[in-house]
Specification:
The protein is α+β, with helices and mostly antiparallel strands. It has 10 helices and 15 strands.
Length: about 400
């Protein structure tokens, strides 16, 4: 700033000195001779012209001095440039951190929630407990811990193997002598933790519970990249039969993936199946069942309380079905749901009619209640594993 002020003072002094000389010249020369006056006038004009020129030059120098201002602006720009790489580095670091959080991280998060929910359910499942209340408590805990439901909580008792979830106004109560299977599913960003356990409230259930637990443990010990599915199925059946029970042929473990509960690959519970080699990065629910019955699911008056949306969309005439499908699309696009959840949005009678209509039109898939013969008992054990390197991580067990 000080350099810009100096040229202005110098030009002012130069302007003053020619004016004094012109005045003194005018005083010394007499006004008698016209010719000399003209000359003086001419000289004065010339000097005046010189003054103007000098003033213009002085003025033209000012912009030259103001050109130094951008130099300071350049310094500021340089300072900004220095800060830009720092911001870029931070963004890159954040991007790298985000990349590190892959499928296994989400499977583990879902597993942590499932472990805590199971702890709650073990306390809730007891003689005299309402199945409806147990289901509601477990599902509420999943949301409270930051997860979402991968499927409705299953409470399957005695000869019922799977897919029983409490209905609206369900009056079923756990009784003395019951053997109860609790199947819990959690997902985080679409990655699933699927796990189940069995609780006995009767006599002579210890061995059947141990049969399914040991079979699941043996399958977990075997499974890894490069292992084939037939070898795992053979091990599961051999262990269950060693306890004097049968595996259920139609039920099996299943592949998991993002927003996919039942993938294309299965982990069989019996021997003699096709050998499929497993690969790193795959996830599976290892799910074993031991039964005192036939080892086959019965066909008869099958009830159904669990459904899943099919991608096929067709025009619907029934108004309640339209409303039900709208609720399903908004909340349960990828994973199974139950009648009880839809009945929270629609009247119970309308919900039942709507779901039957949607199932008949192939808009939703049925998951019927699965059972062995009457008076048989069934145990279930299940954990989720993720294949990594030449090993596996069990996501639904503590300290894994």
């Amino acid at each position: 700033m000080s350099k810009q002020k100096k040229p202005t003072k110098t030009s002012t002094k130069k302007k003053a000195s020619p004016a004094k000389k012109a005045t003194s010249t005018a005083k010394k020369k007499p006004a008698a001779k016209k010719s000399s006056t003209k000359k003086t006038a001419t000289t004065t004009k010339k000097r005046t012209t010189t003054k103007k020129t000098t003033t213009k030059k002085a003025l033209t120098k000012k912009p030259a001095t103001t050109k130094k201002a951008p130099a300071k602006t350049t310094k500021k720009t340089t300072t900004v440039k220095k800060t830009i790489p720092k911001k870029v580095v931070k963004k890159k670091a954040t991007a790298k951190a985000a990349k590190v959080e892959g499928p296994l991280d989400f499977y583990l998060k879902a597993g942590e929630i499932a472990i805590k929910v199971k702890e709650l359910l073990r306390r809730k499942v007891k003689v005299g407990a309402s199945v409806l209340e147990v289901c509601e408590a477990g599902e509420s805990k999943i949301k409270e811990l930051g997860g979402l439901w991968a499927f409705p909580l299953n409470i399957s008792i005695n000869n019922v193997a799977a897919h029983y979830s409490a209905q609206p106004e369900d009056e079923l109560v756990i009784q003395k002598g019951d053997i109860v299977k609790v199947d819990c599913g959690v997902h985080v960003d679409g990655y699933v933790a699927d796990t189940a356990f069995t609780v006995s409230f009767g006599k002579d259930h210890k061995d059947i519970i141990k049969a399914s637990e040991e079979a699941t443990k043996a399958a977990i010990d075997l499974i890894r990249p490069g292992m084939t599915t037939d070898r795992i199925g053979t091990e599961i059946e051999d262990i269950i039969r060693s306890y004097g029970y049968r595996p259920i042929r139609e039920l099996s473990g299943h592949q998991l993936d993002q927003n996919l509960l039942h993938g294309p690959l299965t982990i069989p519970n019996v021997k003699g199946t096709k050998a499929i080699k497993l690969e790193e990065g795959q996830a599976f629910a290892i799910e074993t069942f031991a039964t005192s019955g036939t080892g086959r699911l019965i066909r008869g008056d099958i009830k159904c309380y669990i459904f899943q949306l099919n991608p096929l969309h067709i025009p619907l005439r029934l108004e309640s079905a339209k409303r039900a499908r709208k609720v399903i699309l908004a909340n349960y696009r990828y994973f199974p749901f139950t009648t009880r959840w839809i009945a929270k949005e629609l009247p119970i009678p309308s919900t039942k009619v709507a779901l039957k209509y949607l199932a008949d039109k192939a808009q939703i898939k049925r998951y019927p209640v699965l059972s062995d013969i009457k008076d048989s008992i069934i145990s279930q054990s299940e954990h989720t594993v993720y294949l990594t390197g030449n090993s596996r991580v069990v996501t639904t067990q503590p300290n894994q």
